[in-house]
Specification:
Layout (H helix, E strand, L loop, with lengths): L1 E5 L9 H15 L3 E6 L5 H9 L3 E5 L18 H14 L5 H9 L8 E6 L3 H12 L7 E5 L16 H10 L2 E4 L16 E3 L22 E5 L10 H9 L5 E5 L7 H7 L3 E4 L4 H8 L4 E5 L10 H8 L3 E4 L6 H8 L16 H14 L2
Parallel strand pairs: 1-2, 1-4, 2-3, 4-5, 5-6, 6-7, 8-9, 8-11, 9-10, 11-12
Length: 368
Amino acid sequence: MKILILTHVVRPYQSPRSFRSTELAIEMAKQGNDITLYAVVGPNKYELQKNYKRLNIELKDYRKFFLVRKNSSEKLKLAPLHKVLITLFKRVFNYPNIEFLFNIPKSLKNEKEYDLLISIAKPHSIHWGTAWALKKNPELTRTWVADCGDPFMGNRFGPPPFYFKYLEKWFLMKAHFITVPAEGAKNAYLAEFRKKIHVIPQGFSFENIKTYQSKVENPIPTFAYAGAVYKRKRDPTIFLEYLSSLKLNFKFIIYTDETDLYKPFLQVLGEKLELRNYISREDLIFELSKMDFLVNLENIHNEQVPSKLIDYSLTGRPILSIGSVEINENAINDFLSGDYSHTLSIDLERFKIENVAGKFLELAKMHV
């Protein structure tokens, strides 16, 4: 099958969407499909293209961007002016990602006759650009699947201005299928298009996963959290307040690049709270497998499911799931005393990349 995948970034950049794009492309290539993958590649373009070529993937760069800076090759430090522009115009104009709307049709003007096109958001402007590309180039693909990691207009973490609903409705009308990672996410889209929506969770290869093989024997209860937090939405505050009230000795390790919500507790908890920088996914799984247990901070709504739960499960460690609005103090106390009977159970079989890739290929076969 001839397959085209459109995304913003791919590995080595680390994000849920880069993992989605890269893992999907690798697995589909393994299954013998002809894969073309478009991304903002960045300054290491030729080296990355060689690496992907070894995986039987043709990695292509979009036409030159003037606004979009984030790329697959480096973690870019934005210039002060660009930060100001993002602050002023991100919400109102979807700056700088609105550029995908105009760039994608130009980038794809010579592409044609794909069996399957998968556009991967966020940003959702990739879907808008794909819709426009198909209008200008009807021979581009036989089947278009618009993959939505997070909702856009229905995103309760911060809905955009009302006028973007016209762009959302446009791509929803044009796409043959829409895919979301969780059942609850369907409710974030217009009811008239929900019959097009299929649930396909995040997928990862479980090969070559390395975990700590010795018995975990920490001198004090040691637990960790890795990932983003959001004030009043995926918020650790109430959990940290409870931990601050305990006389028990413990170590809570957090992998993050966002420190604002933790700062009020650094002095209170002292050495009990340790902030660490993000590390590669492979290294993170290994480090997390040394913990007594792992902490999952729940979203206040069920439209989005953290992909970290897959990695947590791969570590083999118990998972304590914590609410952002209220917490189960008894469950926390049990975990701190070594009783993990309240552990969150995850069906890993659903997230195997072989199964996830198969679901996308099934959609292409469904659309005749």
